[in-house]
């Protein structure tokens, strides 16, 4: 299965994303390919565990922007909520949402890696 | 084709930069910066930037710091800055308000819709461009107006020269000498300080000092010999007549130049001791510019040939003025005159 179709089956709004990339699917695929290293780099869970909620917030905010622009919708919704909860001083709830979304994120990442 | 508009995209995430760059590539040159410090370097380089798309949360230097920097350097008033952020009005009201307070023109939320984005940014870029064109146009018109102003003044002065047997170069020399003398007065005496712009206006205004001579009958104005007492009384009227002429054309010349001209016309024959005319005012009742024109007018008359006298040498003329043979002048202005004009070789001013 091609990457875009496979992503769609994982809940990614590829139609919206392609519109954002002016219909350039090759460019979209190339940019989606940059998501796994970005996610690995930002290590949100690690900062949660260290209790560094400030960095966790800043990095979750960055992921919110990136997943939004790539229309990785389930991830975008989760990071939006995580950011809001951290801003509202509720790290416990934020962390539980993060833990819920991590397997979904792993699926998306492995799908991307597989199709490289 | 080389595009004449450039957009600076500032975001630490390559994914975000690429989407924006892709969307604007067709109509703009694109410069990308990964953080605030790179952005500031581009903005300060003097390169013409039509818009900045600025992320807020970035390592090294964040978006708010970029805005602060642009406020400090003033570039914020020339370049529209769009905040491009995942922060929303709902969850980051204060942050976004700070950005607006620092001069950001608009906030665009991630994820964005390129078509909306292109319209919003394109509209503002055109607006700024339009404003810039208007400013350039106004500046050009103001310059043109100044040239016309000066020409009007010179045209008026030329009319007198046609009637007056004095050298046609007289008014130009008066203007040049007035500028030299006023510059020296300003340099030597802080109490008489005037800016260079004001001195330039005074120099232009001095051209009109004898405009009232147009109202003096030919047989007196061009009499080849000394004037009788009655004739001299009529001749003296050229000061007040000059003011009357100027009063009839108040809108023809720049207001400042008009005011200087009016004062110079009336008072360039007053003397420091009160023995001049038409008002017999004395000391610093006489404006410093009228005092300056008075002394250079006397000097120029001395070094020019007249129907009733030959031209004096420069040194002789300076000495006559300095020794009080031509009336009493402000000692300070006399000192400045001696420094700036007296000590120099006779030049063609």
CATH architecture of the largest domain in chain B: Orthogonal Bundle
Q: Counting H and I runs of at least 4 residues, what is the number of helices of chain A? A: 8
Number of domains of chain B: 2
State the CATH superfamily name of the largest domain in chain B.
Answer: Hypothetical protein af1432
Structure, described:
- The complex is a heterodimer of chains A (116) and B (349).
- Chain A has eight helices and no strands.
- Chain A is mostly helical and 116 residues long.
- Chain A has a single domain, classed as Up-down Bundle (Four Helix Bundle (Hemerythrin (Met), subunit A)), CATH 1.20.120.
- The radius of gyration of chain A is 14 Å and the shape is elongated.
- Chain B is of the alpha/beta class and 349 residues long.
- Chain B folds into two domains: 107 residues, Response regulator (Rossmann fold); 200 residues, Hypothetical protein af1432, CATH 1.10.3210.10.
- Chain B has 14 helices and five strands.
- Chain B has a five-stranded parallel beta sheet, sandwiched between helices.
Show the helix and strand layout.
The complex is a heterodimer of chains A (116) and B (349).
Chain A: H1 3-9, H2 14-20, H3 25-32, H4 35-42, H5 44-50, H6 53-69, H7 73-87, H8 91-114
Chain B: E1 6-10, H1 14-24, E2 29-33, H2 36-44, E3 51-54, H3 63-73, E4 81-85, H4 93-101, E5 106-109, H5 114-163, H6 170-188, H7 196-206, H8 218-221, H9 229-236, H10 238-248, H11 255-267, H12 288-303, H13 314-322, H14 331-342
Parallel strand pairs in B: 1-2, 1-3, 3-4, 4-5
Helix pairs in contact in B: 2-3, 6-7, 6-12, 6-14, 7-11, 10-11, 11-12, 12-13, 13-14
